[in-house]
From TrEMBL:
Keywords: Membrane, Transmembrane, Transmembrane helix
Major place of residence: membrane
Chain residue ranges for the region called Disordered: 202-252
Keyword Lipid biosynthesis carried by entry: no
Biased composition (Basic and acidic residues): 225-241
Keyword field contains Transmembrane helix: yes
Name of this protein: Uncharacterized protein
Organism: Stephanodiscus triporus
GO cellular component, one term: membrane
Length: 523
């Protein structure tokens, strides 16, 4: 959860981030995270096989915490002072921020010397407390890369943890919780980030900083909601701060909010790291299932295979390609919808920034809920194929209202939000269910290697499909324009997602492979 929170931590506050780091974007930081994540997926299997699961998870937890504190810098001090009740008296004039100092420029000095110089030269308030701010961008980037490298050790190991710790009728549920709980981190990034950084106090989406996507920011000044009212009752034009025409105190508040936001994530990571070091164990004293006991006995004499050898073996086994395709479909749909959630909601009549943020949060939580409920059903019945096909078919239905407008009815926000939640409920569980199915058909293969292949493929395909969907979203097709009762229009991105669902459904329906692990457990 926390690693994905870090990944999308600035997605809800793109303007505040761009204001704090001129010339840098939230999207660029997210891209850096995803790139290192994809590369890490290629190494996680061999590293876990060599050093053991506990050592790798603990080391990754420490790495993630280090990255979070690099992103936080010394911004923890003002947050701690506020928490302890030590208040700083703000001066009316604008204080000098380190990013405005030549030490932050390209003068040949190292980032560390620049940061130290900015701390030493930073103006002190009248009560003597140092006004430490955000770290320079190289620190934020380095911290993000560290968290991106650590994430695969949490993201690719849930099937291994499920097999090691849970009985055969609990694995799909446990994998669903572990794999889909990253959606809670994304939801937290959308809601918590906006609330903490939002200067206007309006919560998530109170102004332009708190939207989910920056794709349509530049057009917002021309619509009816071009003005907001600040805490003093004065009208403030959206985008003034980003353009440099806003109040300097507002810029300071944004910087303070961003620093406190990063500090909160850093503190949470420290607590989770301590808990991981204290309580995480490799395996229980007794294997939870017959298949796991037999695999443990066989692996002790056979030894672990290198990742590239495992991958060749997976694709050589009948049935591995279908669950891989379903996994890629699920992660691609959730990423496309999440990336363009603001445009999707606005085209359906939901324009309030706070409502958009909470709709995105509801979509992510529906993914988690669906994974738990449907995962539990699959645990009891082992109906991997039928549940997956029903989920893909229902996803095909519920994705349609996200881009279809019936001219006679007009915009239907309630239908749009309901469809969004139901889409998340049915498309999200496809990932953990097919992660378990892939492990089942490749038994006694390495569970971590199976999930590494799926995560690598899903993230790589998503990275290629999201830009395609973005271009398709600009296309609008008229349906039955000569029939007033049925005249509609549909967006290109929804057609793209529907085509992806149909292709996956047609390919998946031919799945017919033995469930080797289930047979070993006597099912």
């Amino acid at each position: 959860m926390l690693s994905d929170w870090v990944c999308f931590s600035t997605a809800s506050v793109p303007r505040a981030f761009a204001s704090a780091y001129p010339g840098r974007t939230s999207e660029g930081l997210i891209d850096a995270f995803l790139l290192t994540n994809v590369l890490g997926c290629l190494a996680v299997t061999d590293v876990v096989a060599r050093f053991g699961l506990r050592r790798c998870v603990v080391a990754s937890s420490v790495m993630m915490t280090t990255g979070c504190w690099l992103r936080c810098g010394l911004g923890i001090f003002p947050a701690a002072c506020d928490f302890l009740g030590v208040r700083r008296r703000r001066r009316r004039r604008r204080r000098r921020h380190p990013r405005d100092d030549p030490a932050y420029g390209d003068n040949g000095d190292s980032p560390i010397s620049k940061y130290v110089a900015s701390i030493l030269e930073y103006e002190r308030s009248s009560d003597g407390l140092p006004l430490f701010g955000l770290p320079p961008y190289p620190f934020v980037l380095a911290g993000t890369v560290l968290v991106g490298l650590a994430q695969p050790f949490f993201q690719c190991t849930p099937p291994l943890l499920s097999a090691t710790w849970f009985a055969s009728d609990e694995r799909a549920t446990s994998s669903a919780v572990a794999l889909n709980f990253n959606q809670v981190g994304i939801a937290a990034a959308l809601v918590v980030g906006g609330r903490m950084v939002d200067n206007g106090g309006g919560g998530v989406g109170g102004d332009g900083d708190a939207g989910i996507s920056s794709s349509r920011r530049d057009d917002d000044d021309d619509d009816d909601g071009r003005y907001r009212v600040d805490d003093h009752g004065d009208g403030v034009r959206r985008g003034d701060r980003a353009a440099g025409g806003g109040n300097d105190d507002d810029d300071d508040d944004d910087d303070d909010g961003l620093a406190r936001y990063f500090a909160l994530v850093a503190v949470l990571s420290a607590f989770l790291c301590a808990g991981t070091c204290r309580y995480f164990r490799d395996s229980p004293p007794v294997p939870p299932s017959a298949s796991e006991a037999g695999k443990a006995a066989g692996s002790s004499s056979r030894g672990a295979m290198p990742f590239h050898v495992s991958v060749r073996g997976f694709f050589g086994k009948r049935g591995f390609g279908r669950p891989l395709a379903a996994f890629v479909f699920s992660i691609a749909i959730t990423n496309v919808v999440g990336a363009f959630i603001e445009e999707v909601m606005e085209r359906g009549g939901v324009t309030d920034r706070r409502a958009i943020a909470w709709a995105g949060c509801g979509f992510e939580m529906a993914i988690v809920l669906g994974g738990v409920i449907l995962g539990r059903y699959v645990d009891r019945t082992k109906e991997y194929k039928s549940v997956t096909m029903w989920c893909i078919a229902l996803s095909l239905i519920f994705v349609l209202p996200l881009g279809l407008t019936q001219h006679r009815l007009g915009q239907e926000p309630k239908l749009l939000v309901a469809s969004l939640f139901l889409l998340g409920f049915f498309v999200g569980p496809v990932q953990p269910i097919n992660a378990e199915l892939a492990v089942d058909v490749t038994f006694p293969g390495d569970e971590t290697a199976v999930e590494s292949v799926q995560q690598f493929s899903g993230n790589l395909v998503s990275a290629m499909l999201v830009p395609v969907a973005g271009r398709a979203a600009k296309l609008d097709y008229q349906l039955l324009p000569s029939v007033p009762l049925l005249a509609s229009d549909i967006r290109g991105d929804v057609i793209f997602m529907m085509a992806l669902a149909i292709a996956t459904l047609c390919y998946y329906r031919s799945f017919d492979a033995p469930l080797r692990r289930s047979m070993a457990d006597g099912h």
